[in-house]
Fold each of these.
Amino acid sequence: MNGRVTQEHALAKVLVDDVSVRFDGTLALDHLSLAVGRSEFVSIVGPSGSGKSTLFNVVSGLQRPTSGRVLLDGRDVTGETGHVGYMLQKDLLVPWRTVVDNIVLGAALTRGATRRDREEAAALATRYGLGEFLHHYPHALSGGMRQRVALMRTLALHTDVLLLDEPFGALDSQTRLDMQLWLLSVYEDLEVTILFVTHDVDEAILLADRVAVLSERPGRILADLPIPLERPRDLDVLTSAEFTELKREVLRLLHDRAPAVAP
């Protein structure tokens, strides 16, 4: 895009418009643009140090870009926080708070959690498989269950844009696969827009409608690949010829280090 906002981009749920970020003379992101549609799931992959987390910090408002802007529903929110839900790899659950109390943490810290907040948290947890653990503390939960609580806490913020930064990266392979399938069910059930950072190419393709491939630092978009796999998805898609071809293309882009091109 490089600063030229078309009508399609203006109608995007999230628009990262020609963003560059420089830290102490080092360029982390270089004129990066990305448009994400309403209720779209976009995975972002790239080499270590390519600026994926920096991009999320810019979108969330935690980091103001050196140049460029971020639009949400067409409104400039550059440098403003509170518009998106942001979930990190570490679950960051508060050990002395129960599952319900962790889910309503956002409300508790901003305005005070109400009875309605707690009722909504309990309903959300029950809806997505945590109903038996509402009054358990984090130490009693498995890694996958802790990540579910962390995602419920993000959903409880009532934002319709979620930034998920390698949320399953610390889990063992079987638990990770279970969580991927669980996230698919949550996404297909809710009208949310998700940006998802991962180093796992299989995970990126399985979950997403599109995969954006970043270059080495400074981060630019090498390619923006549509994932034409029907939803709902299950494990069978991992062995399909179409999935294999998509994976081959993403891996080629990551390892060939081809020159960056506009999506």
Amino acid sequence: MRSVIVYKSPELLEKVEKVLLDLGHEVKSFPKPSRSLESFDFIVSIGGDGTILSILQEVRRCPPIFGINSGKIGYLTHSNSTDFEDKIRIALKKFETEKFERVKCSCGDSDCLALNEIAFFGKERGKLTEITIKIDSEEVDRIRCDGIIAATQIGSTAYSFSAGGPVVEPYHPSIIIVPVAPFRFGWRPFVVRMDRIVEFEAKNPGLVIADGKKIFEAKRVTITKSDFPAVFFKRDDRVKRVFQIIRRIE
């Protein structure tokens, strides 16, 4: 099988290459992801969650990803730098995978995908922006705030969590709508089904940020379920991992 390694930490690269070669796989390695990753049978990511999110910004049809954490949180990863050899051997032997829906953000002629969240902010820092929220074309609210986040259930432990959003278990496909610094007493986030159409519209053009990686300028954004899910090697303790992450954050 053809494998590819995307690495942020070159210290582990040689060890990972050796394991894959010993298992009989062809190996390529790149310090930065690109669309060419789609042509491989699986991807090994050496880095943190940010490295995996960078990979997912480049690929649409996603080969299974195995993550080796050399960062801080490692919510999306499968192992760390000390136990990856056994875990990657087991994962490749079983080759069991799982898919998590991504969202597609359309704004004018531009579109992008996100696994964690789409964030929409006013361009002027320190100044409130008024954002209209629509779900399935129905206006549900209009709020003044610094910005607003549309997160997936996978992203519920990321930026959305920092902004006061709820934690949603990873196998419950959802879009979580969370305002950032809303100028209204008592406003709370809410959760809708992943197959809803969510729209944000501001009076003036703002900045759209996908997973903290790609930035667009737009006045109106439409967020829908993508046809291209993220694919990972299966992790049996993924739900348990959510609560481990939350305890560590606290």
Amino acid sequence: MAISKRKKAQYRRIAVYLLSVAALVAVALVVDWGQLQRAMFRWDIVVDQFPHILTGAAKNTVIFTIFGFAGGLSFGLLFALMRLSTIRPYRWFAATYIEIFRGVPLLVTLLILGFGIPIATGWHWPNPYVQGAVPLALVASAYMAETIRAGIEAVPKGQMEAARSLGMSYSRAMVTIIIPQALRIIVPPLTNEFVLLIKDTSLISVLGVTEGTRDLARFGRDGVNHTANATPLIVAGLVYLAMTIPLTQLVAWMERRAKAESR
């Protein structure tokens, strides 16, 4: 008797579940949990991380993220409008900028702007916050520009035509009619970009930060060097999760709400 496709799929799911459970049981039996706990989660070291990790490292991570996001959003809107411009040189310049900063890894951008330009010109960054936030903003703006452009193009063309028929200039119609509608569309992806920026701040430590501007990743790494234990990195990871999980849930809620409104 032939087995139906539905039954085959059901049997495959059961096999996957059984293999997963078997793998978990094998890991549970093989791992030395006591040694793992001593090496990666010593409670005395956890307690010692607070409140410094919140008042210092987490605060700095938030500052880098906010500066990077604000700059990225501002430049992203500018380059999105340039990409949509009828002036060809503007479109070419914006497209070139976007392709460069989307194609070059953030780490390389940080090193070029943080070390390369000062070495080549003799100019120095005014403070570590600006040195870290500017590369974040430039890279984020390239991604945000494409997101904003897609949001603007998603607004029905009739909206612009109606605004122009009422005597509005193109720029006024864009600012008062089109962009506000586009923002409703692009809020979820922009929130995702904010989450990515929170995690990308961990790369800023390659520039060498001061004691007062350490981010979470640098704080955890310094803690490992000081304690010869991985617990500080685990704590830093948990603080990252405490910041990013509410935002990812907010994005999921906004997407569900948008789908419900579109029905």
Amino acid sequence: MNLVIETIDLWHVYRNGVEALKGVNFKAGKGETTILLGRNGAGKTTLLLHFNGLLKPTKGEVLLEGKPIRYDKKSLFEVRKKVGLVFQNPDDQLIAPVVWQDVAFGLKNIGLDDREIDERVKQALKQVGLEGFENRLCNMLSEGEKKRVAIAGVVAMEPEVVIMDEPTAGLDGFGVRDIVEIVMMLKKEGKAIIISTHDIDFALEIGDRFTVMDGGKIIHEGKDIPEEIAEKCGFRRKIGGKLIVVPHNIPVPDVDADFFAAAGDLGREAAYKAGIQPNTECAAIEKSILKAIGGSTVLLICNAEMIKEVKKEALNYPVKIEVLTEGMEKRIWESSQRMR
């Protein structure tokens, strides 16, 4: 691992006496996405705030590129050019009324000329999918757009380390997909990415290494999350499954599914005609999505008019969805045969 952030026996005690960190030894490398997991109060955010000097250790050290962080004004200025932090709540980070001004704020503070600032702002907004938003008012943006503006402000600084605290909190399925794409882009650029999250499916999709905290200590580090650790911390280890949606007006494929559902009169008729006894016909869409979230492969047969409704609902959850059209059922059938 090409280390960029490291802590050595890091302790932090707040003024009220709460020991938030208890001897934490943490490592993160360039070109990797390190995921920080744990329950509320485990110490995740406190640890993140040490990485760019917003908090000073009670005891221990934080190393950036092998050198201890120093806490004088000049040293912290240099640290924060290299380590960018995206807060959980974008309203805590957006300080200017207009998008362009907000993304440009940090660049002006480090003394770049107007031409360089303009180029970096445009590039950062393009990278987060907000081209054309330069003159938008920040307080008129959606929650997902605000988060992307906050990320753009960090990306524009061209840091070596990008830290995100709960980036998917409060976002729908489309917003989560946007964050995934941004993380993948930053990783491709060779950044060290550190993300704190409660969203285990998001974590498993983007993570290279996983650090799990509990009670201010690291209880697991590795490239996977053991089942016993997952159970202790109250999250599922398995990423969501797959939802295969078949409209009633095409042949039903032969799929090795774990769960069969039929929605609507025409969906039920198509299922019975294909010789399929559905596991459920009541609240079929909701039950299908729940089964897929749990890791199952689900075949849902429904009225063709319901397809848009199913897609809209499923995209809010961490499941893979495939909607069949005429001719696709043959490919699914052949794939199923090869698997057997």
